[in-house]
Amino acid sequence: MTLIGHEKPRRAWMQACQGDRLHHAWLLAGPSGVGKATFARLCAAELVGAGEGAGSPSPDNHPDILALSRAPADDKEARNRDEGKPFKRKRNISVEQVRTLQRRLNTRPTLGARRAIIIDPADDLESGAANALLKSLEEPPAGNVFFLVTHRPGRLLPTIRSRCRVLRFDRLPEEQVRQVLAHERPEVGGEHLDTAIAGANGSPGAAMTWIDEDLARVDAAMRALLRDSVRSAEHRGALAAAIGARPTPERLAAVFTLARRLLAGEVRSAPAEARPRIIEAHAALVDLAARAPTANFDPGLLAMQIGGLLASAALPREAA
């Protein structure tokens, strides 16, 4: 694991580790894809001494690093995960998952005096799961340190936020995004790399998704929809073709993220009278993205719906 940038939260963590009492819960807040989960794993590894000395387990299989995220959607998807294949996840982190975790917390750490718990992202906790987790944050078992990764901290219970020390993560400058990609995607270069960085908006994770999912055609079709309301049907067809007939869940998630980012940019640059229409399209897109992972949408129709929402936000040709 390599972390580039984020010197300020890194200094705050190191200073806390040097103190007499380490806070038991940390909220890692910032945009998606900037490195919060990597930071959490590095801190967790330091906390439990993973990979230190001969015979010490690596962070990926250390018994005192517990990671909680959305589970596979069903048994079939669980088998896909176990076989290293793409798999669909449940919509939320469930209360059953949190309660299973809590049973582990009531035991002593396996190899040392501390245990690290990473919840990524904490935004995905369902209501019952959030309330169950709150009990552990209110009365933390000795030796357990929580790292809650969040892209939207406002979605968390105020009582959860109040029990965490917050570390804030900003978007990275372009040069640092380039450094991350040189390490993570060394085979990519030239115009493809430059386009990924330009579309990432300071998020190395977004840039890697752009590369992995080959989003250049998707981006071009979406921008055409936002710029040319006259040929909307043609551009919607091009968008459906660019998304593909059988997109993976990861690809669809990337498509929704890209569409939301483009609309957010449109709001900032559009005339005041056009902003309500764009905001309405953005809200509908957020709702559609939330339903898509668990609904049985036809991919072609879903692509057309996304295109329709983008088209509804487009400026008329004379205004553009």
Automatic annotation (TrEMBL):
A Pfam family of this chain: DNA_pol3_delta2
List all membrane-crossing ranges.
none
The cross-references to Gene3D superfamilies, in alphabetical order and at most eight, read: P-loop containing nucleotide triphosphate hydrolases
Please list the residue ranges that the record marks as compositionally biased, kind Basic and acidic residues. Answer: 72-86
Please list where the region (Disordered) is annotated.
52-87
Residues annotated as domain AAA+ ATPase: 22-172
Q: Which PANTHER family match?
A: DNA POLYMERASE III SUBUNIT DELTA (PTHR11669:SF8), REPLICATION FACTOR C / DNA POLYMERASE III GAMMA-TAU SUBUNIT (PTHR11669)
The name under which this protein is listed is DNA polymerase III subunit delta
Which organism is the protein's source?
A: Blastomonas marina
